[in-house]
Amino acid sequence: MSKDNDLVWIEDFARFHAQTQGAEAIVLVDNGSTLYEPGDIARVLERTGLDALVLSTSLPFGPRGRRPYGNTELFLQTCALNAVRLRFLQQARAVLCCDIDELVLGRTPNSVFDATWHSRFGLTRFGGEWRYARQPARGAVVRHDDHRFLVANKKPCPAKWCVRPSGPLGDLQWRPHILDEFVFNWAFRSKEFTYHHCRQITTGWKRDSVAPKAARLVPSKTAWQIATDTPRVAPGRQAPRRAERTSGTMQAVRRVCVGSSRRFFALRPALQAASLALAAFLGLAAEEAIDNDPVSQEFAYLMQGFYD
């Protein structure tokens, strides 16, 4: 989602992910820009080689809450994410959610899309780091590649994510940093990816764009330099998991498991807990029917296991 961001920023952002991560398409929601028309954005994105879809809305973004700025106030962003998810991205191989001021980087040859496609649950989350640029010359536009400085011991940026819509978590709703009501978001943090959060790529609507004092800035490589130094696997060429080379029966079983997982994780946490409790009870009852032990004895065995 973007409003009045410089068209140069939009082009740099899109081109970077096309060339370094093998992105093939982009969906950009223009939030009522006044400096240009949606058609101007589409022409810029087409120059990057991406299949571009530019949507437009002028609805209110939502009020900014009190600290710690919970996501409950991001009305438009959350609704737009899920409208796009349901209408346009159900058949996507993998979807990366990030903003114009964020450049995703891999620490291995594989792209974030390939890594997510081949992961068992189809979810990759990763933290980021702030990067800063010197004040540009008067009238010049600061670019992503100007962000060649960092501040030591700076708190990491909130995690971003890439998801496989056809995977076990494909029916969960999207939020900017998490999959909604998924209690295991924390378990999917990957060290194979990170992102540079470019501080001066902003119109100033949300934060101060002034860089810290020069004495605090430490030189570092730019995102382009890091991406160039990292060898890349051709998009979509990562070796398949061994599980994908299975018989038709096992593939059918896998499809059933994925479908069941999608329905389970789409439930609210309370219903998930109730479902697990019911499954545990049925499992105990079935085991009791087989060995004819009383249910009370089965529970005693279970509790003894915890104590041991």
TrEMBL record:
Top-rank taxon of the source lineage equals Bacteria
Q: What is this protein called?
A: Glycosyl transferase family 2
This chain's source organism reads Roseivivax sediminis
Lineage of producing organism:
Bacteria, Pseudomonadati, Pseudomonadota, Alphaproteobacteria, Rhodobacterales
